[in-house]
Amino acid sequence: MEVKILFAILLAGLFLVESKYIAYNTSQGIVPDKINVHLVPHSHDDVGWLKTAGQYYVGANNSIWGACVQNVLDSVISALLDDKNRKFIYVEMAFFQSWWRQQSEALKTKVKDLVNSGQLEFINGGMCMHDEATPHYIDMIDQTTLGHQFIKDEFGQKPRVGWQIDPFGHSAVQAYLLGVELGFDSLFFARIAKTEQSEKMRRLLRLYGRVLSPLGHLHRYISVFFPDIMILLMVLLLK
Predict the structure, then answer these.
(1) What are φ and ψ of residue 205, in 5° steps?
(2) CA distance linking residue 8 with residue 10, whole number of Å
(3) 68-87 pLDDT tens trace
(4) Alpha carbon distance 117, 130 (integer Å)
(5) What is the DSSP letter of 179?
(6) Chain-centre distance of CA 98, in angstroms?
(7) Do the Cβ atoms of 116 and 79 come closer than 8 Å?
(8) Non-local CB neighbours of 120 within 8 Å, separated by 6+ positions
(9) Alpha helix locations (H) across 26-90?
(10) Which part of the chain is the Glycoside hydrolase family 38 N-terminal domain (predicted)?
(11) Alpha carbon distances (Å) from 62 to 52, 56, 57
(12) What are the boundaries of each domain within the chain?
């Protein structure tokens, strides 16, 4: 009986409820005396995890994990071209480079315009979002260099933001060598060790820290801690 009543309500809703398109105000601007929420559409495409990098790109073996990065890039670029108010940040150059090589010169010109206007921004900029615990620091440098070189050659741009939201743990090498020395304005990261998520840290909004380079130069940073993400704003002091 209850199922029949529920079905009748749902059926009535289909005919009685009018649906219409709602245009959202997506214009930029800070509203004083209000909580201003910033939504950041971004990529997080594993360059190999449960599947190979190639399978992730073309969408093969989706019985293991449903993912097709090629479709993600196609839809994102199309959406950005449709509305100048939209923005997106892309991280993994291994996938973007593969996609880029398949595009026509006409579309490449349009994508370059998106980058120049700030609608599409490359952050981190390595071939992948490397882990910070097990890789050798030379490998971290090499894969970051390859990605940054591609961005410079094709777009004449330099990433300004570090984006390490999925490694399992974080290192001083990343903060200094692949943060401060790269000239990043900020470093966003998540997945901090459980042992560091103390109640004391949860009560703090701002944390202050220091990164000491091998040459003895002091770099200060301000970190903002949240339960699942930590933001480092690193300010390079004059040497």
Answers:
(1) -95, -40
(2) 5
(3) 999 999 999 999 999 998 99
(4) 28
(5) I
(6) 18
(7) no
(8) 77, 80, 87, 88, 89, 90, 111, 114
(9) 53-58, 69-82
(10) 36-196
(11) 11, 9, 11
(12) 38-234
Q: Which residues of 105-124 are buried (b: 16+ CB within 10 A; e: fewer)?
A: eeeeeebeebbeeebbbbbb
d(CA 209, CA 235) in angstroms, rounded, equals 11
Using pLDDT thresholds of 50, 70 and 90, give the confidence band for residue 116. Answer: very high
Q: Which two tokens stand for residue 74?
A: 């196609």
pLDDT of residue 181: 77
Q: What is the DSSP letter of 42?
A: B
Which residues contact residue 115 at a Cβ distance below 8 angstroms, ignoring those fewer than 6 apart?
121, 122, 155, 157
Residue type, 76: V
| Separation of CA 47 from chain center | 14
Q: How far apart are CA 100 and CA 59, in angstroms?
A: 17
Two tokens at 212?
């000491």
Q: Are 132 and 171 in contact (CB under 8 A)?
A: yes
Q: What is the pTM of this model?
A: 0.75
Phi, psi of 15 (to 5 degrees): -100, -25
Does residue 141 sit in helix, strand or coil?
Answer: helix
Residue 135 tokens read as 């890789």
Task: Please give the Cα distance from 221 to 210 (Å, whole number).
Answer: 6
Q: How wide is the angle at C-alpha 220 spanned by C-alphas 219 and 223, nearest 5°?
A: 135
Instruction: Name the CATH topology of 38-234.
Output: 7-stranded beta/alpha barrel (3.20.110)
